[in-house]
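The aim of this short unit is practical: by the end, you should be able to scan a pair of folded records and say something sensible about each. We start with the first protein, listed as its amino acid sequence and then its structure tokens.
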Amino acid sequence: MRAVLPSLGKGAPEGGRAHAFDRWLYRGKRANRLARLINAVSGRLAAAGIGPPQLVMLEVTGRRTGKKISFPVVVVDHRGQRYLVSMLGDETNWVRNVRAADGRAVLRRGHRAHIHLAEVAPGQRPAILRRYLDCSPGARSHIPVGRGAPLEEFDRIAAQYPVFQVTAPGAPIRAG
């Protein structure tokens, strides 16, 4: 999630000052102080329904503290379904918290929606990842495949970037 600078190009994730800034915000796959501040502001705006429609606030119970953790994420629409993608990979706190909460979460964008997040199998992720790069310019510098790359390139990295399908609470989890 990035809310500061626009992307400078369509191609490879390594191009431009905006991408260097994005990588700096998340050095070591952790948000630095400025990134946390930007995320807090953009998350509150998203929760109030202000900003790009795909930007929402995700709330999940912290796996260690048991307290509500909130942060902005981009919801990706693909083939009539909604998905969340971890641009920083498998070991991010929000991914670990969602897994520990058995997928129970809340999305906020003008109102609260209780949801269930079902993890998508790596073999089903490539097209969703490519769509995610179209919808989330800030993620382009963190995923090592250009957004116009063939699906085969996304297939090679798919296992490293968790994808969760947004479903209603109690909805059956798709096997994958």
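Turning to the second protein, read its sequence before its tokens, just as you did above.
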Amino acid sequence: MSDADGLDRHARPILLPGNSVGLALMRSEDASAIARWNQDLEFTARIGTPGEAHTLEVRQEFYKQNSRVKPDSVEFAVIELSSGRLIGFGGLFDMTRAMAGTMFVGIGEASQRGKGYGAEASRLICEYGFFFRNLYAIKVEVHAYNQPALQTYERLGFKLVGRLRGVNMLNGRRYDEVIMDLLRDEFELRYISRFTSLEPTAGKGEGRSAI
């Protein structure tokens, strides 16, 4: 719905945009879409919870408990910029005093997978974590059968830390849990560069004021 000045009052604010997707805060109405994704057994296997399914009530309760940005965790909606459509989620958890955190990402809409949206959302979450949450390292934990995710993280610069051998099972077979990490000084900020104006430049006084 738009008003006289042409602005869509129901448009979701994008906290951090990329080229094709952006990060936004979760809304209560997102629970129905996320419940639907979590009843897609291929999707749950890919994100590391094979066979798990969630009802709408489960997702609504999860939203109530986790919708706030917290010192040790944050969850974002992944929005397709061209349509404003919710297509996935991602975020960081277990952020510690050692300034390390664990990342998760999932593109729930099956029609939007394989387009590079997961890779871009992962990059945006890393940029947020390194710039705003001052993380030194970001870790991912991936079931070894999820080769597309492993390849995506490798392209982003994540490096192998180690493996927990045979701790995951699918179809009667055991798979490793692959642990990878990315350090701040190994990663080039791309989409968040506009926020560097918040910092004073040597010899040029303070940065732009908000008042």
